[in-house]
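ingest -> validate -> predict -> emit
validate: passed (alphabet ok, no gaps, 481 aa)
predict: started
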Amino acid sequence: MRVCKRFFLFVFIACSNHVWGTDGALDKFLSSPITKNATISLLVKNMETDSVVADFRSNSATPPASITKLITTATAMEMLGPDFRFETYLEMDGTLENGTLHGNLYIRGTGDPTLGSYKVGNRNFLSVWTREIRDAGIRQIKGGVIADISFFNTDEAINPQWIWEDIGNYYAPGISALSYMDNSMNIQLMSGAVGSVATVVKTLPTVPDVVFENHIVCKAIDYDGAYVHGLPFSNRRYLIGSVPANKGVFGLRGDIPNPGLLLAQHLTAQLESAGINVSEPAGYQKERSQQERKVIYVHKSPLLSEIIAETNFQSNNHYAEQLFRYLGSRVSVPATVKNSVDIIKQFWKARMIDLSSAFLCDGSGLAPQNAIPADVFVRLLAYMSQVSIYKEDFLATLPVAGESGTLSGFLKDTSLHGKVQAKSGTTSRIKSYAGYMSIPGKGNFVFCVIVNNGAGKARVVQREIECFLVNLVPELPENNM
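emit:
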């Protein structure tokens, strides 16, 4: 509790010590040494009266970082409904005679991000699959287990707009119709003496045939500066950067090169341990074969509402990208990035929210080419609160300021603690927030603040945004409705 009080005191002093002038919260925010030379798009509106409370370049397309996920998750909620579940199919081809499958067993994915996930879902699902395969009468497979990843365009297993610095790291794993174990692995390293190269000990999970080109140097530092680089379907991973010397074993998280194949390998091992012999090694296919198949079992994901809650509460890039790409499948299969962008824009245009001024490149906000005006977020959020039949479901997926998710430290112990539900966004030189404020006696408000290239670290820019919102509240008129 002492930490919370110190933080509140710091925020209060920071807000009080600025030489704001007398022109109100917005002018104070824009004239701050931290934000005066930044690129800003900002809008605050009263939802009951639709009146503008604060506006600065709200129609200007501005890179928004992770609040982009609000567009992805709101679209998914509206198009699919909170009770939607992804489906993954176990199928077989060939013939089944006296317990022997003369053919292959297929795992056909449609984008479920939760298979084996450490975040949402049942991680022991392979035992269920094995039981279902046995119940189908299969005791031996004269073929292999094949991962069918054809539902998504495999040429875009990474978004074409992502940068090399991100690709291969845990927060930017490849997108796959068969996501598995969050598409990420923990690379365990042994740190040694200053100047030595850290040793790769093992990976969790074990990824067969992965090869590391390791250039991680142990230095006299107290932070982790190591990164992973690599492309989907390639087993070579480049490890670069530096780590603290003489720290023993520690973990570096990177992506799984081919999560569908790893899933097929793990199911093969599970079947073998259950006494079901599989003749051929596991494999994968990028394009669906024309051979007729029979469905053995349909695995259903947790509810979409749970998946969206994980996406928004923890700013889960992987979940967001899987959702984004699935939306594209409503245009055509295999789903592409263009499919996804097109259907999102068409969907909201039909609801009088025109995204033609927005440059939308992905579902998570990782792409630096994303540029979306604050006005778009405000109109979309107002729709979700005032028009959507899924209002309560969507609101439940947003963290509360000072209390939960990525907002646990935002506005903590200020006058807005617990009164804001929003999504945060943070990447290099970008800090953003978009969501709702409920102020007793004042009304309900929707807001978006996007700051690019502020004069300070993300935490410093965050405090300026906190000060703006806190200072804005006394200026709001009393609600006489």
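The longest strand covers residues 430-439.
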